[in-house]
Design brief:
The strands form two sheets. A six-stranded mixed beta sheet has the order 1-5-6-7-8-4. Strands 2-3 form a two-stranded antiparallel ribbon. A hairpin with a 2-residue loop joins strand 7 and strand 8. Helix content is 56%, strand content 5%. The longest helix has 41 residues. Helix 23 packs parallel to helix 25. By secondary structure, the chain is mostly helical.
């Protein structure tokens, strides 16, 4: 088997498996889909098409989100009777929220566009995907579509990826050919047979690998190659001495197991016997993969076990349904929430009910917003209204979000503006909302990041500034070289989805990439040290500025910070026991920007959440906690305090997508939760209500 076809084995679909499935009733395909066995469903679909039994585009659309390889995606698209209708798969948000799935979404969008899908339906998905992190091939497909749409807003939004259309034109042509291949060509591209693989479960290492000419360990007396070499092995269990079926009973399933299991095995677990942290991980996995029916099943089990905690997951699932526009699925979940937690959904339900109801509810909410004050920590109706409108009526939501940015009564303005940008993509408005410029003016630039429009506090001619500028220039040059090398590597290793080949010359480029990455790491370390020295000097100046008789200083003295956060690591301000900002006393012994050593304690929510995230995120989280507990002033400068809380709530970033929620009182650090950006609003709302 050649290397290109060997790559297709990852989907466990071959000519032999398709031939074996001929004659399988279409009802078995539905059974496979219900059990999340997408490989089996795709195999049956190919078999039906080969036997002359058409498979509907809607069925192909249900299979596509569970496929992992672009080659199989292209082949399934090729046998779809009406490719333009595949756009419904994107409209209904069926694809998982992962990078790999986004690349398959791109292929599906291209196929629907090529089949004549309406540009008005194509544009929102085109803009959304062009903002994602994708392969060069995927960008080329999107840029090819964008080049045919005569719209200035589309051109502006897709300008960064436009060059890929020309650079990867051959790849696009090859993918296009694969999507429009004949049935015989599709079948010929599949591998002859699938290499030996586990039918389910986990891959395990044996003490000694059996040679093909050795006697088969099954005891038949035959050579291994003529006996069991090509037979699927029994599914092993990750628990020694426990069969896989007993493992699926659920009692010993861990959060790590949940991440490793295939979906077809995950749906077989007895969720009634799964430990709570693992059950939460199952819930998150089904949400990520958009297996909504199974997510609802797990949500019901979470509520059954702990009604109070279960309401958090009920609300999260309801929000997810509203995000994808599935109001009917959200209704029963909203109705199951306590009365005080339903109010956040009033706007969504009112707009769905019609203009008369919507008008009355919006007026009521406007009155709540007008009457709200910073002394009412239990509610922030302006933020809730902005997010609700962004879901239900994006144009109104953008206006409400701008008002929130203007008053800075918001815990994470960047996250809100990211949702605004998604709304602008959906409505095909010019990219980059005007509120970003307002935010730049209102928020002081973060030390060393270059963000914001504030004036520099130091002279660029001073030695450390010159050294920092030189270091930054060197890193910029290295990054440009790295980008060029990565582009060469991508050209050498990336092939159309129909080919999936890797060429030998890529290995040398791999080494060059690693060398450049090491140089950049060294440069970043040097730059961080220079920044620390600059920040220590700026902290002294900041202390004096804060004590000046300015409107900003007066507001801090009155315990009314002018932005949505106080920075407890910032010189001149410390966090009080009740979450208010207090001016540091003259006799305070803390050095500006530094903290004392604290002892961390972990609440159950955080422990559960830590078990759900990838290992690298968990490791970065624990490193962040360690530096905070050690009182590292540099780390504390990035910590922000949530506004209008009955008790202090602090927040720090972990990577791009996660937030660490904690508080520090009496030299004790209580780590409350680890959440995603999407969960931020719901989590902070819950904490505000806990008096």
């Amino acid at each position: 088997m050649d290397s290109r076809k060997r790559a297709l084995v990852g989907e466990c679909i071959s000519r032999a498996s398709v031939e074996a499935a001929r004659g399988t009733p279409i009802a078995d395909l539905e059974t496979a889909l219900a059990g999340c066995d997408y490989e089996r469903a795709a195999t049956i679909a190919f078999a039906c098409a080969r036997a002359g039994t058409p498979v509907g585009t809607d069925v192909i659309g249900r299979i596509l989100p569970g496929i992992e390889l672009p080659a199989i995606t292209c082949s399934l698209i090729a046998i779809a009777p009406s490719r333009g209708d595949l756009l419904a798969v994107l409209d209904q948000h069926r694809f998982p929220t992962t990078r790999d799935a986004a690349e398959l979404e791109t292929i599906t969008l291209y196929a629907a566009w090529k089949a004549g899908a309406e540009p008005a339906r194509v544009i929102p998905h085109l803009r959304r995907l062009s903002a994602r992190s994708l392969t060069a091939e995927s960008y080329a497909l999107l840029a090819t579509v964008a080049a045919t749409i005569d719209d200035p807003n589309v051109a502006a939004a897709t300008k960064p990826i436009a060059p890929f259309a020309k650079e990867y034109a051959k790849n696009v042509a090859a993918d296009d050919k694969a999507m429009h291949a004949s049935l015989d060509a599709v079948f010929a591209e599949l591998p002859a047979e699938v290499e030996a693989s586990l039918a389910a479960g986990f891959t395990v290492r044996t003490a000694k690998q059996v040679g093909r000419n050795d006697l088969c360990p099954c005891g038949s007396g035959l050579k291994f190659k003529k006996c069991c070499a090509d037979k699927p092995q029994a599914a092993p269990s990750p628990i020694p001495g426990l069969s896989f079926e007993a493992f699926l009973a659920g009692e010993q399933v861990t959060a790590d197991h949940v991440g490793e299991l295939g979906l077809r095995d995950l749906v077989r677990i007895d969720i009634a016997r799964v430990p709570w942290p693992s059950l939460v991980a199952v819930f998150r996995r089904f949400i990520t993969t958009h297996e909504w029916t199974h997510a609802e099943r797990v949500q019901a089990e979470l509520v059954r076990r702990d009604e109070l905690l279960g309401h958090d997951y009920t609300e999260e699932l309801a929000l997810r349904f509203l995000d994808i526009g599935d109001l009917e699925r959200a209704r029963p979940l909203i109705a199951a929430l306590p009365v005080d937690r339903r109010s956040g959904f009033d706007v969504d339900l009112a707009i769905a009910a019609g203009p008369d109801t919507a008008y009355r509810v919006l007026v009521d909410w406007a009155r709540k917003v007008a009457a709200s004050t910073a002394t009412n920590p239990a509610q922030m109706p302006d933020i809730e209204l902005a997010y609700a409108l962004l879901r239900a009526e994006p144009a109104l939501g953008i206006l409400a979000a701008r008002a929130c940015i203007g008053t800075m009564r918001i815990d994470d303005p960047e996250t809100l503006l990211e949702v605004v940008e998604e709304a602008r993509d959906q409505m095909n408005l010019p990219p980059v909302d005007a509120a970003w410029a307002v935010l730049d003016e209102l928020v002081e630039p973060e030390a060393g990041t270059g963000k914001g429009r504030g004036k520099s506090k130091t002279k660029a001619s001073e030695p450390r500034d010159v050294a920092l500028a030189e270091s930054t220039a060197r890193i910029d040059q290295l990054e440009r070289t790295l980008a060029a090398t990565r582009a060469q590597l991508a050209d050498a290793t990336t092939r159309p989805a129909a080919e999936l080949m890797r060429v030998p010359e890529a290995s040398g480029l791999d080494g060059r990439v690693r060398e450049l990455e090491a140089l950049i790491r060294e440069g970043n370390a040097e730059r961080r040290e220079l920044r620390k020295q600059l920040e220590a000097r700026e902290a002294d100046a900041a202390l004096h500025r804060e004590r000046e008789d300015s409107p900003r200083a007066r507001r801090a003295t009155l315990d009314e910070p002018d932005d949505g956060f106080a920075n407890p690591g910032f010189a001149g301000v410390r966090s009080g026991a009740e979450g208010g900002a207090q001016v540091i006393d003259e006799n305070d012994s803390l050095e500006p920007g530094n903290r004392g050593v604290t002892l961390p304690r972990f609440e159950r929510r955080f422990v559960d959440a830590l078990g759900e995230v990838p290992a690298q995120v968990a490791a970065e989280t624990m490193r962040t906690i360690g530096t905070l507990a050690a009182g590292d002033g540099f780390t504390w400068r990035s910590i922000k305090r949530a506004k209008d809380m009955p008790r202090q709530v602090l927040m720090g970033r972990v990577g791009i997508h996660h937030r660490l929620i904690f508080r520090v009182e009496d030299n004790d650090m209580t780590v409350l939760d680890l959440i995603t950006r999407e969960q931020l609003d719901t989590t902070l709302k819950r904490l505000r209500m806990n008096r």
